[in-house]
Structures are given as C-alpha cells and as structure tokens.
Amino acid sequence: KFFFFFFVVRRYPTLSKEEISYTCPYCRGDCNCSLCLRSPCVSQTSKRTLNDCEKIQHMQYLVSKLYPHLESIHEEQTKEIEKEAGILGVASSSMVIKQESCHDNERVYCNRCSTSIIDLHRSCSNCSYELCLVCFREILEGRLSDTIHKPAPHYVWKGYDYMHGGDPMPESCHAKRSVRGSELPRETFFVEDGNVFCPSKTDGCSGCKLELKRLLPDRWISDLLKQAENIMSNSKFPLEVPEPPAHCCSGSSLKAASRDDSDDNDLYCPDSTGILNEAELLHFRSHWAKGEPIIVRDALGRTTGLSWEPMVLWRALSDHTDVETSSRMANVKTIDCLAGCEV
Asked: Of 22, 122, 23, which Cα lies nearest the Cα of 80?
C-alpha cells in the first residue's frame, strides 16, 4: 500500500493521499497514464456558451477590427493594377490578371523577404520566382541594399557556471562565439520601363520579366470588402467597446515593473473563470487587442487532463506502442534553456 501511494503521489504531486483515496485520478478526469495521454479528448476546458445574439455581436466586432487591414490590402492592390495598366497602355477595368495555381495547404511566400503572399504578386513564368508587392515597389524606387545580412555579432562565452549565477571562467579561457549569419550577396534585379526582371543570382533565372499574377479569384478582395462594409453598416451593436480603466483593480493586476515615469507597471492578471463573464471578457479583449501581455491565473486548475509536470510530458512524447511514432519521438531534443545544452 505504501509503494502504491508513493507511486501515485509521485505521478500526481498536486493531489494529497486523502484526495486520491476519495476519488482516483481517472474519475477526476485527470489521469496521465499513457493511454489517457494519447486520447484525443483528454483535455477539457471551461467554455462559455453564447446565444445567437452574442455570436452575431462578436462576429461583427471581429469584422470591424479586420476591416482596416482588408481596406489597406485592397488599396495596395488597386494601385498596383492601375500602375500595370499604365505600363501596358490599357484601362485598369479591362485588365486581365492571370491566376496562379496554388493548393489549399500550400504557402506562397516572397523569395526575397519570405513574407507570405496573400493575393497579387509578381512571378516569373520561367522559374516560378515570386516577389511580393512591397519588395517590387522598393526595387523600382531603388531602395534595396546590396547585402541581405549584417556582419555576425560576437559575444564572450563565460561558461555554464556563470549562466547559473556563479563566477565566470578566467579571461584566458574566454572564447568568442558568433551568431549565425554573414554577409551574403543580394539578388541583382534589372529594371526597365517600370518592369522588373528576374534576378541573376540565388533563386532567379535572370532575364524573364516578373508578371503580375493573383492567387485568389478575380475581385475576391473587393467583394469581401463590400461584404464587410455591409455588415458594419447594418450592425445593431456598438462596434467599439468602452476602454477599461487605466489601472486594473488590484484583484486582477500584477506588478511587473517599478518605473517612476510610467503608469503602465501592472499586467492584467484575470482568473480563468472570470474571463467567462461578459464584462471581464470585454476587459480581456481590450488588453489583448493592444498586444499587451496577459497572465491568466489558475488555468491548469480549470482543465482536465492537462499537466506541465516534466514526467507527464515525457511520457506523452515517448510512450507510444506504434513503432513509427516512437522512432519520431526519439528524435525530439530537449534543451536546457539556461545552460544552452541538450539534456
């Protein structure tokens, strides 16, 4: 019996012997055996049920926040089409833009800046070199540098003891380490009469003109913009949520800094169940929309089957009866972030 409780308490350090005797972890919905960890429905979180009216209100709010970005994309594409029409000597309304084939799960990105491409872009018909509209505009305006990477910075390695609060190694043992990166040649683009040709280095084929192409169906962005405007104009709810007080109440804030010249030293720190309430949800949303960090308290206590215990995570990754899955999990590397080494 002693060894049984020792084994169970070791696996469930947050539960006492009395709690385990009263209700076992499986009945509590908190079992972390290998079988339960592999179950797709092991984690259950608290959810707030919304009625139809609330769902419509939240959807209209999302549309109102996404609208400025959609409007910016449409404006950028309109200017690009007008510019291309001027080069070809045709009316922008009669412009026919080729649609490039793209699979649903395929990510199209700019070969120069690696930014995801949404719709309109420049593409080489010969080698499929793709360029986003921002890079294309910078090339035309001559605002590109000749190198893609800055010289690699160096830092002094003072040893693992120093990283753990100990003394640094003797200066004679110090070694300089460089961050990955070096000066690499940028592609060379040829520009003529408002056209940009495929670069002569790296990924390009050198010589073929980059044509204006689209990924989405014709007028998809403009039609989506009109639908968003229609939703916002017919909204029965206020699209702007009142701003929360400058200082969150002491029960939902956490001091994170001590700056004398700032009134922003506290972090919003709500309880996981409190966010389910309408007023607290709006409060949470106002902070989240600004990109501010938020600490949600008691998140693990409100869920079932979710644990950050190291041994639980290890079993979830390594204990697999399937040979193929086990071989993949064996390749997972664990890094001690403080020491910077594999463990």
From this structure: 122
